[in-house]
Amino acid sequence: MKVIEWERDRIVFRFFGVKWDWAIEPRYWRPHIIGIGILFVTPIVLYFVYPPLLATFIEGSLLPCIVLPVILMLIGTGRFNFGPQFFVGVGGFTAGLLSIHFGLGPGITLLAAAAAGLLTGLIFSPLTLLAGGIYFALLTLLLPLIFLEITFVFDIFKGDTGLSGIPFLINFPNFTLNQLLYAFFALALMLIYLTITDRLLRSRYALQMAAINDDEEVANGLGVNISRIKIASFVGPAVMISIVGWFYAHYFGAFSSITYLPMTFMMKVFMALVIGGRGAWAIVLGGYVVTLIEVLLIRFAGNLSPILFPIIMLALLLIFREEGLFGLYRKRHYRDYKPHFKITK
Amino acid sequence: MAKELLKVTDVYKSFGGLTAVNGVSFSIYEGETVGLMGPNGAGKTTLINLISGTLPVDSGKIEFAGTDITNLPPWKRCKLGLARTYQIPRPFPGLLTSANIVVGALCGKDMTERSLMDASAEAMHYLEIVGLFHKRNVKAEELSLYELRLLELARALATTPKLILLDEVVAGLNPAEADEAVKLIERIKDYFGVTVLWIEHVMAVLMKAASRVIVLHYGQKIAEGSPQEVARNPQVIEAYLGEEVNV
């Protein structure tokens, strides 16, 4: 039997008795092509027009790289993880410590960060089976905070100063060119995550994840192996988020727990999720909007920005709580609507 | 002689000090429609939960199609051919009506050579059978109680069960809807050849639809037999109406 088979409107994959259909629907491609085109052109425009904004673009591209896995985790486990930045810390410290102490390059530390994410994800994944609702939220909220304390207790993490001297991922003499290449790297990572999320949300696994999200007991009774789906939905995104930590470490050449593990970083992640709205592209939009607001506040509000940022976020949260910014687009393009996945516990 | 499909042997279940199911034993044979009756709190739904695996048994044994399923998780029991509906309908509210059924069609049986598109096409068949095809693109949360009952039935059927456990299907329906639901179940039973274990509060329904009736009272089986035999059983009359009083 053929592994890949082309049919009139779809590609059929077969692997060890499991069959996947990938519908080819060019009439729905236009918004995606436009979106990707805009994202690829933006760094080039910024490079020539206003290079300092390249850093904002990179930050804006990396934020969805955390939020997209968080969405997968949220739907697939039926539980709200309030501490996804824990895995940013796992990936970042793994990359940083291995680079500094063992002189390993970014290629090896990428694998190590992913492996560390996988391992910690597996260690903490039973939480998805044992705890639900508010208990799961509290437990996951505590994870990054405990990790933060650990980084202060053990000198190897260098407390609030953090690790420094981590080799850069891209290191050409021209700083602006480096920023441009980082922007493309971050964009590529984001687009990979976007594709993974988008494909998953249209797959058989998304249906099982949504069923778990709505009522895991009923899903279990209908043949969904909920333990397997929940653990996979926790561990897979954990690896994805750890890789973002690896990128932060090799992008800045430094990694500090005080930057990524506190709740302020978590707030940015959730704001990107809420302000963007439903759907994978909405999260991308949310990531850029939140990063831009933060940068503009730092630029124009100075010392007041730490106070103004949460206030503005709160205001946006109240305004866009239902559909997010992307809801404005959906009103005109209702065919793009995706099923609503809600958290029941 | 029909083949034994479900065998429940000396099953017990307690919640704290309350014994909800107290040493119940019975068998169900292929092709039967067995009614499970009893007053409120008799342990009917608990027994269904034990059979479907939603609750673990304290002791006893449950065999299904010759396999000991006592300690199997619900999803494995479903794949063996055991499906159920719920007393209070429990759809996946955020999903479309069709997607609710696709879950059953996709996961309720062996997934070999079955893609999401295949399962979606199959789900349409079940939607048509129960008469919900026109609601296929409506979210389950927007359906009426009657439609939810039909959805649950279609979702259970989509798993291609050998035995279907129906938990008070006509509860809350008006007489016309209840009549329609009963006719639909009878039609489905013939069409798919499924065996039915049917919990019902409305005795008249089971008297008409069931070939055999089991009566529970305070977690114990007090009677078993044809509907007519059970209706005449003094213990059953007492359980439902209380002791005879001379006035």
Task: Name the CATH class of the largest domain in chain B.
Answer: Alpha Beta
Order of strands, main sheet of chain B, comes to: 6-7-8-3-9-10
Low-pLDDT residue intervals, each spanning 5 or more residues of chain A: 334-345
Low-confidence stretches of chain B: none
Sheet having the most strands of chain A: 3 strands, antiparallel
Write down the overall geometry of chain A: globular
| Category by helix and strand content of chain B | alpha/beta
Number of domains of chain B: 2
Oligomer: heterodimer
CATH architecture of the largest domain in chain B: 3-Layer(aba) Sandwich
Give the largest chain-chain interface (CB within 8 Å): A-B, 33 and 38 residues
Q: In which range does the helix fraction of chain B lie?
A: 25-40%
Beta fraction of chain B: 25-35%
| Main pleated-sheet profile of chain B | 6 strands, mixed
Rg of chain B computed from alpha carbons, rounded to a whole number of angstroms = 18 Å
Descriptive account of the structure:
The complex is a heterodimer of chains A (345) and B (247). Chain A is mainly alpha-helical. Helix content of chain A is 69%, strand content 6%. Chain A has a domain at 33-271. Residues 334-345 of chain A have low confidence and may be disordered. Helices cover 38% and strands 25% of the residues of chain B. Chain B contains nine helices and ten strands. Chain B has helices at 44-52, 74-80, 97-107, 116-130, 145-157, 175-192, 203-209, 227-232, 234-241, and strands at 4-15, 18-29, 33-37, 59-64, 67-68, 82-84, 163-167, 195-199, 212-217, 220-225. A six-stranded mixed beta sheet of chain B has the order 6-7-8-3-9-10, with helices on both faces. In chain B, strands 2-1-4-5 form a four-stranded antiparallel beta sheet, covered by helices on one side. In chain B, helix 3 crosses helix 4, helix 3 runs parallel beside helix 5 and helix 4 (116-130) crosses helix 5 (145-157). Chain B is globular and about 55 Å long. Chain B starts with a strand and ends in a 6-residue tail after the last helix. The chains are: A mainly alpha (345), B alpha/beta (247). The A-B interface holds A 10, 12, 14, 17-21, 23, 203-204, 207-208, 210-211, 213-215, 217-227, 339-342 and B 52-54, 73-75, 78-79, 83-84, 86, 90-96, 99, 102-104, 106-109, 111-119, 139, 155, 159.
